[in-house]
Each structure stands twice: as C-alpha cells, then as structure tokens.
Amino acid sequence: MSDDIQRHLADGILELRIARPDKKNALTNAMYGALTAGLAEASADPAITAVLISGEGDAFCAGNDISGFLPANRTDAAMVFIRAIADFDKPIVAAVRGLAVGVGTTMLLHCDLVYAAPDARFSVPFAKLGLVPEAASSLLLPQRIGHAKAAAMLLLGEPLDAEAADRAGFVTAIVAGDQLLAHARAKAVALTAMPPRALAETRRLLRGDRSDVTARMREEETAFATALAGAEAKEAFSAFFEKRAPVFTREGAK
Fold this sequence. Notes:
Layout: E1 5-10, E2 13-18, H1 29-44, E3 50-55, H2 77-87, E4 92-96, E5 99-101, H3 103-106, E6 113-116, E7 121-123, H4 137-145, H5 147-156, E8 160-161, H6 162-168, E9 173-174, H7 180-192, H8 196-207, H9 211-228, H10 231-242
Parallel strand pairs: 2-3, 3-4, 4-6, 5-7, 6-9
Antiparallel strand pairs: 1-2, 7-8
Helix pairs in contact: 1-2, 4-5, 4-9
C-alpha cells in the first residue's frame, strides 16, 4: 500500500483514503497500484462487505498527476485501476469534498453511493489537455446526467457543482462537510446488515449488462493512447509546464 493511500479496515468496510493533500490528492502510478491492490483485497475477503473511498484534506482527487503523462513516467497503472473499479464485485461508497477532476470524477461512475460535500466540484477536462474520456465516461456520463450536460463537461470542460450534480442524479446526496465522512461510513456499514445474496444480486441487476461498458472502455483506451502520443497533448502539457496558453492548429482537425 502506497504511503499516499491509507487503508483502514473495520466493521466489514475497507476504507481507501487518498492522502496526498499537498497535491490535491492527484494520483501517481504507485497510488493507482495501491488502490487496485485494495480493491483486490476487498474482493477476495468474504468478511469485507463494501469499500469506502475518500480524500484527505480539501479535495477528493485532482486527477492524474501531470508527471504521469510524460513519456518517461507512463505505465498502465491508471488503466489497470480503471478496469478494476469497473469490474469490482461489491458495493463502493464514495465521500467527495472539493475538487474531483478527471479520474477523480470518472471513477465515481463506477461507485454505487456517492455522497458530496456542498463544495464538491466535478470536472472532466480531457479535451482541454488534448485527450479523450476514459473509464467509459463517454458512455456512462450521458446516461447518468443526460447528453447535453455531459457534452458541456466533456467537450468544454465545464465543471458540475454539488447542487447541479445532485439535481442531475450524479450524486446520491449532499451532506455537510463536517458530517460527510461519518455519513458515508454509516451508509457503508448499513450495507453490512443487508442479506448478502440479495444485496449482491440487486447490485448486479442495477448495473445490468456490462458488455457495452467493457467495449467502450477498450475503445477509449485505444483513443486515449493515440491522443496522448499526439501533437495536441504534447502542446497542452508543454503549455502547462511553461505556464502559458496552449496554441492548437486546426490543420487536420475533423
């Protein structure tokens, strides 16, 4: 388990806490690996009923650490985690405060109960970085909040605040910040009192046929790899590190 991912097991709940607050909980390759390992542990242990994911400090997760996009640092750790959370076979509860950017938002599409503080702010600015959606978000986000709202988020990078997310059905409920984690824990613990077979079968029925999700994830992974190696992403990341506005050419755009 990475030092930046805290693990706590109690009452049949495995809590995975993203704990890199000085970087707004941006995820490194090691952190992705630790989250994946935590999900594998929870899946294999019959005593664990559910997983609770939260963030340390004033942000949930600022997405992928920007250094992870550099050629020298690229691994498949992020994609492995995304596949793991999409295929996870037990309920996942999330407690979200502050920023939830990129994978910080798309992972929530694979969570069952999402509780948000009033300051929660969800964004998926992939296109701004010359990239494309991941975690089947190009499929699941329109299904969850409607095409028009999803288009504003995915095409323009516009954020969704907590109230808008609640109205759109993206989150389960808004909870006061000082009560958020306790509330999410209580809901996770409540799952342990449910009849386990009925709980598992109900979750399976809720999620439905996942073949379309799997297929979309594969399609996104291919497109993401192509985009990441392309000129637009290179310019976006260069501009970020050089603290300037990116300049994109229209040549060859479709």
